[in-house]
Amino acid sequence: MTIEYATRYRQASRIPAEPGKPYFIEKGEGDRAHLFGDLVTVYAGGEQTGNAFNFFTVEGPKGDLIPAHLHPDTYEVFYVTHGAVRLFVEDTEGRQQEKLLTPGDFGFVPPNCPHAYRMERHHSQVVGVAAGPGGTFERFFETLGTPTDQLGLPAEPVVPGPDKFATVPQRYDVRFLPDHRWRTG
């Protein structure tokens, strides 16, 4: 049995809004959103951790490169559990690198480092954790995408318009880099 809570973000959430309370979430029963071709599921966020970190999964089909972006105040980790994900990263000196991550592989992205990723195999899944002094950004996924109760991938990709992209830097620690070019691949 999963208990649902109302939060300031959703009418029904499976994540309790009160910090400092233990809880359990069954597989796939976190707060879900469709963004691009992916399903994002948030299991813990700022409300539960005092804005210390968030914990989420992203699963999706083989697809396009997620837009380049950076987080001025946030560390982000990528841990692949299924499939293959190509992570693109640029350090603060402008050196770019890419790495194909397969199950059990880990990628670390410090603040202010442009990055992007691309699912290289169908049914790929990444476990993400983000932490930093600026708070957490997990509600970005449902703000830019579309909240959903579905367990699967979107039937059609959810591609936000430029107006939605423009609101993100003011509300979350995510800055998109529309003119960024990857020289690595």
Count of DSSP H/I helices: 3
What topology, given as strand order, has the largest sheet? Answer: 8-5-10-3-2-1-11
Ends apart, CA distance between termini: 46 Å
Mean pLDDT: 88
Protein name: Cupin type-2 domain-containing protein
Organism: Streptomyces longispororuber
InterPro entries: Cupin_2 (IPR013096), QDO-like (IPR053146), RmlC-like_jellyroll (IPR014710), RmlC_Cupin_sf (IPR011051)
Domain Cupin type-2: 60-119
What does this structure look like?
With 185 residues, the protein is mainly beta. It contains three helices and twelve strands. It is globular and about 45 Å long. The model has no long low-confidence stretch (mean pLDDT 88). This is Cupin type-2 domain-containing protein. It comes from Streptomyces longispororuber. InterPro entries: Cupin_2 (IPR013096), QDO-like (IPR053146), RmlC-like_jellyroll (IPR014710), RmlC_Cupin_sf (IPR011051).
